[in-house]
Amino acid sequence: MHEIYVDADACPVKDEVLKVAGRHKWQIHMVSNSWMRLADSSLINRVVVPEGPDVADDWIAERIGAGDVCVTQDIPLASRCMSAGAEAMSPTGKRHSEDSIGMAVAMRDLHTELRETGEITGGPKPFAKQDRSRFLQSLEESIQSILRNR
Q: What does the domain layout of the chain look like in residue ranges?
């Protein structure tokens, strides 16, 4: 059975994940460091992990497998999930590939260094309506691709 793992603490597309997963009857694991209000669905497994760096990421990476999908903004987690044979995508709908993940890790490291030295300030651009739409389409495409290839 295929599953969707969501790095849920700051994920803006939890409802969209449920909408698409519901169509396909895929189990969703919403993983966070604290309890959060979620839609009432038998497809949702709420997972609250202890506080600490990368605890939620580790929980996901230890369980995800081939044919699953991870929704995360965390590039290192996306890379770990892809190493396990899973698909990884951001809440803005960007699907990671073997070709793109290396560059994404390098860009993340560069931006971290630039922020630490004060060269750049601020974070990513605000989440927009078109990001939500792109995410819905990308998640559906990922699921359809997995189902075709099984």
A: 3-149
Tell me: the pLDDT tens digits for 68-127? Answer: 999 998 888 999 999 999 999 999 999 988 777 666 666 666 666 776 787 776 666 788
CA-CA distance, 141 to 135, in Å (whole number)?
A: 10
Q: Edge-to-edge strands of the sheet including 87-89? A: 44-48, 27-32, 3-7, 69-71, 87-89
What is residue 19's three-state secondary structure?
Answer: helix
CA distance linking residue 95 with residue 88, whole number of Å: 6
Distance set, CA 51 to CA 33, 57, 77, 111, 131 (Å): 6, 12, 17, 25, 29
Q: Domain 3-149, what fold?
A: Rossmann fold (3.40.50)
Burial class (CB in 10 A: 0-12, 13-18, 19+), 62: exposed
Q: Give the CA-trace dihedral at 102, 103, 104, 108, to 10 degrees.
A: 110
pLDDT for 46 = 96
The answer to whether the CB of 84 falls within 8 A of the CB of 57 is no
